Automatic annotation (TrEMBL), chain A:
Domain 4Fe-4S Mo/W bis-MGD-type: 219-275
Descriptive protein name: NADH-quinone oxidoreductase
UniProt domain 4Fe-4S His(Cys)3-ligated-type: residue ranges: 82-121
Pfam families associated with the record: Fer2_4, Fer4_NDSU1, Fer4_Nqo3, Molybdopterin, NADH-G_4Fe-4S_3
Domain of life: Bacteria
Cofactor: record remark: Binds 1 [2Fe-2S] cluster per subunit.
From TrEMBL, chain B:
Stored Gene3D superfamilies: Glutaredoxin, NADH-quinone oxidoreductase subunit E
UniProt family annotation: Belongs to the complex I 24 kDa subunit family.
Classification via SUPFAM superfamilies: Thioredoxin-like
Binding site for [2Fe-2S] cluster: C90, C95, C132, C136
Protein name per the record: NADH-quinone oxidoreductase subunit E
Cofactor: [2Fe-2S] cluster
Length: 785, 165
């Protein structure tokens, strides 16, 4: 894009500026500092704080730099007597009602008002009248308020409107009585709400969990990478005397911009959870590392000698680092074990041989916001990968056509052009309809390997609209989300999505679930492939098969199988029936099946590398020492490798491991090869009421499940049954508070909620929650009475 | 059928709001918010409730907080129950110089209430903080139920207030 430039002069320095840009953007880029409160580069311009007043030649009065467009020949003075007098005057007015309570304010030391007041404020206040006092609001467990300190910059209000897409905060009242708040007391319910803490230039909105825990100048700042979704948001971990105190975003325009999801921001509380382990356990008794390691080696070798290596299964968390995943597979292979997997929530592995070396986003994150058409299949992107949802929201607001095929009518904060809301059977049928429509539009025929799926499909108007939008808009993308991966006919959906993308000219992409889902593929934590995607000589059992046909011994790495696997009930059963289970975990298991628990470090206590959805490798160092005797997982695996007599475990540092895994996987170019269908395929079918489960935003991994504040926030979902009112009517359960849910012969009582966003034929019962673990798979028949 | 918050609005209010909405571009429905609140307040005996504001928000596709902002900004909207007849005495500079303080004190004494309160029988509401009503040439003045009364004296106030039902 060619840009017209104009010449301006700031404080005598000639500058080139993009025509139409605001003055403050140009001075910021040139490193000329102008004080400001309401201006923020990611928000709309309000020009209401008046702090950025500067002198412009031939203008009768000082002008706000944030709302003054540059013009050819403009001469600006940011530090002239006139500009300084204006800034000083504004500062005095802002301080009239602001309490001088910096010593007891949590923002003290990192406060924009404090900093600017130092430079532009007076020494003595001339204001002797009473200051106004504003009652604090309770807006939930994440954000603390001290509204008397508010200077009405409205950044938080604009954030809700423009970024979160949900205007919950507003300015009520007028003049002296104006207040920022929600008017009606309620907790702010946004997956990005914590960002207002960073935006607030004063101490009005501060982080509740870390409030009064330490002073900003005492904290030691460590660059790190967020450990939950596959965005790989850049973060700073702040520690005080070696303890993790809080997490804040680290700006990276191409990944998380200046934002951070609440999950990434507040999950650190899980590090200090009550059930955190500081010593190894054997049979629930604290022991020394030596004893625990010996017991582990003996337990594993014992099973292998008696039952063969095939009797052992390795389940590795997709939030493990590259180094950990790589060493886990190296240890497994060294022991002769081929049963290793990190795809814990996947249901259908039938096409894994033709899967890409690593399923990735299909584009860069930044490209998502320029998308003209996007079809998301099985994705509640707002909760699954909040900042990918934010990018898509930007695309949608700019006119991009965002469309969904989902098992529930999720709420999105942007216009959705077309959507199919259907049960799991209907989802595949709808995708087949879109495939057929795309083929018709392009004058192609559906390839023979997919013909079984599209044969006899009647294309609905919605499916035709989706197809037309994908064909007629570029760039377009087709994305598979978490609920597609956990679908029992994932292979069919992948093959259909691949055809839709190829035929319509869209990019095929995946929204990987966890921080290192992509890394798991590259590092070879797979039963059918070695590191770098090379086929394994003999394929082992995948994550689901390892539980369906139980093994005698399991090695769990950062996994709580009943909560983290596709079929929690099967996982629990398999673990209970096993002879030997060793768990490398930060937490004590309550389930009782673990023989040996080896306490390991959390994300903040280890060095490591994550590969995000874009295939971007990001390494980080540990921010604090692991609690007690806990050790980084990679070190525990190294010792286990040595004790088991496996060759090649003589690493000195995690960098050595990284170098090795980079050697095999670092140069692989991402390529989402298309799924290949099977000529004999019939559309996925299922009878009766189907359970459909998502994993609630704050239940996705062991760390976030222990983050206290997040668990009490409005987005934390309880275990419950959601039914369409018509279905509830048919089942005769309308008016009941609780219903009995039977799946796979097990029954539990759960609260009932009537919800017309759930399609008919489905019962929505979230997974990853203790109350629903005894139920079966994420998608499967269920009886409700 | 799910219950919508806007179900609370009467047919008459809807018709009135629709008529205002039709005056603005189709994507600027929220321009009708002032008229909508005025109508809803009128039907509700002179004040707004949170439920009614939520109903207006739902009807005009606005976020509720945006409606609360408008309703709390303008002094012609009341957010708690008030007396039937609204008395607003201007106390801005022109009226003050012409003796509005005496007028206000007289009304307070006459009705036995303080500024900002309603009479216990629910008949009168003495409105707080009325800004200049642009009738300085007739100062001191007051507005009673949208009608201006100028050049006020104790007798004139008696006459006006006693004539109300």
């Amino acid at each position: 894009m060619s840009e017209e430039l104009v010449n301006i002069e700031v404080n005598g320095i000639p500058l080139k500026a993009r025509k139409g840009a605001m003055l403050i953007e140009i001075t910021d880029a040139a490193g000329i500092s102008i004080p400001r409160f309401c201006y923020h580069k990611k928000l709309s311009i309000a020009a209401n704080c008046r702090m950025c007043l500067v002198e412009v030649e031939r203008a009768p009065k000082p002008l706000p730099a944030c709302a003054t467009p540059v013009m050819e020949g403009m001469k600006v003075y940011t530090e002239s007597p006139k500009a300084l007098a204006a800034q000083k005057g504004t500062m005095e007015f802002l301080l009239i009602n602001h309490p001088l309570d910096c010593p007891i304010c949590d923002q003290g030391g990192e406060c924009e008002l404090q900093d600017v007041a130092l430079g532009y404020g007076g020494d003595v206040s001339r204001f002797t009248e009473r200051k106004r006092v504003v009652k604090d609001k309770n807006i939930g467990p994440l954000i603390a308020t001290d509204m008397t300190r508010c200077i009405h910059c409205t950044r938080c209000v604009r954030f809700g409107d423009e970024i979160a897409g949900l205007r919950e905060l507003g300015a009520t009242g007028r003049g002296e009585n104006m207040e920022i708040g929600t008017y009606v007391a309620h907790s702010v319910a946004s997956e990005l709400s914590g960002n207002v803490i960073d935006l607030c230039p004063v101490g009005a909105l501060t982080a509740k969990p870390s409030r009064y825990q330490g002073r900003s100048w005492e904290y030691v700042q460590h660059a790190a990478v967020a450990p939950h979704d596959s965005i790989g948001s850049n973060i700073f971990i702040h520690t005080l005397r070696g303890k993790v105190m809080r997490v804040v975003p680290r700006e990276n325009e191409s990944i998380n911009e200046t934002w951070l999801s609440d999950r990434d921001r507040f999950s650190y509380e899980g590090i200090h959870s009550d059930d955190r382990l500081s010593k190894p356990l054997v049979d629930g008794v604290e022991v020394d590392w030596e004893i625990a390691l010996d017991a582990t080696v003996k337990g594993l070798k014992d099973v292998i000698v008696r039952q063969g290596a095939d009797a052992v299964g390795f389940l590795v968390s997709p939030t493990a680092t590259m180094e950990e995943l790589y060493l886990a597979q190296k240890l497994a292979h060294g022991l002769g074990v081929t049963n290793i997997d990190h795809r814990l929530r996947q249901a259908d592995f039938s096409d894994q041989a033709t899967a890409p070396v690593f399923p990735w986003l299909g584009q860069e994150l930044e490209e998502l916001e320029k998308i003209k058409a996007a079809l998301l299949i099985g994705s509640n992107v707002r909760m699954e990968q909040p900042l990918a949802g934010h990018r898509l929201r930007k695309a949608a607001l700019a006119g991009g056509r965002v469309m969904f095929i989902n098992p529930r009518d999720f709420e999105f904060r942007f216009p959705v052009v077309a959507k199919v809301v259907a049960d799991p059977v209907g989802m595949v049928a709808a995708l087949a309809g879109v495939a057929q429509a795309v083929a018709e539009l392009k004058g192609e025929s559906v390839p023979a390997d997919l013909a079984g799926l599209t044969a006899g499909v009647k294309v609905s108007d919605t499916e035709r609209t989706i197809a037309a939008n994908l064909v007629n808009n570029a760039p377009a993308t087709v994305l598979l989300g978490n609920l597609a991966v956990s679908h029992p006919a994932f292979a069919q959906m992948r093959a259909l999505a691949g055809f839709v993308a190829r035929c319509s000219g869209a990019r095929l992409g995946y929204l990987p679930e966890a921080a290192n889902s992509v890394g798991g593929w590259l590092a070879g934590a797979l039963p059918h492939r070695l590191p770098g995607g090379k086929p394994a000589p003999a394929a082992g059992l995948d994550a689901r098969a390892m539980l369906d046909s139980p093994r005698k011994a399991y090695v769990l790495i950062g996994v709580e199988p009943e909560l983290d696997c596709w079929d929690g009930a099967a996982a629990l059963k398999a673990m209970q029936a096993a002879e030997f289970v060793v768990s490398l975990s930060s937490y004590a298991s309550v389930a009782g099946y673990v023989k040996v628990t080896l306490p390991v470090a959390t994300f903040a206590e280890t060095s490591g590398t994550y590969v995000n959805a874009e295939g971007r490798w990001q390494s980080f160092q540990g921010a604090s020492k692991p609690l007690g005797e806990a050790r980084p997982t990679w070190k525990v695996l190294r010792v286990l490798g040595n004790l088991c007599g496996v060759q090649g475990f003589d690493y000195i540092s995690s960098e050595d491991v990284l170098a090795e895994v980079q050697g095999v996987g670092g140069s692989i170019q991402p390529d989402n090869s298309l799924g290949i269908g099977q000529p004999g395929w019939q559309l996925f079918q299922a009878d009766g009421l189907l359970r459909v489960a998502d994993v609630p935003i704050y239940a996705m991994d062991p760390l976030v499940r222990r983050a206290r504040s997040l668990q009490s926030s409005p987005l934390a979902q309880p275990a419950e049954v959601r039914l369409h009112p018509d279905v509830a009517q048919e089942l005769g359960v309308v008016g009941r508070d609780r219903v009995q849910v039977r799946q796979n012969g097990v029954a539990v009582d759960l609260p009932l909620v009537l919800d017309d966003s759930v399609p008919r034929g489905c019962a929505w019962i979230p997974a990853g929650l203790p109350a629903s673990v005894v139920l079966g798979p994420a998608v499967g028949p269920v009886i409700i009475q | 059928m799910s219950v919508r918050k806007s179900d609370l609005l009467s047919a008459h209010a809807r018709a009135e709001i629709d008529q205002w909405v039709s005056r603005y571009p189709a994507d600027k429905k929220q321009s009708a918010v002032l008229a909508a609140l005025r109508e809803v307040q009128h039907e509700n005996g002179g004040y707004l409730t949170t439920e009614l504001m939520d109903a207006v928000a739902d009807y005009l596709d606005m976020s509720p907080i945006a409606v609360y902002e408008v309703a709390s900004f303008y002094s012609m909207f009341e957010l708690k129950p008030v007396g039937r007849h609204s008395i607003a005495v201007c106390t801005n500079v022109s009226c003050m110089l012409r003796g509005s303080d005496t007028v206000l004190a007289y009304i307070e004494r006459k009705l036995g209430i303080k500024l900002g309160d309603s009479t216990p029988d629910g008949k009168f509401y003495l409105k707080k903080e009325e800004e200049c009503l642009a009738a300085c040439c007739g100062a001191p003045m007051m507005q009673v139920n949208h009608i201006y009364y100028e050049h006020l004296t104790a007798e004139k106030v008696d006459q006006v207030l006693d004539s109300l039902e």
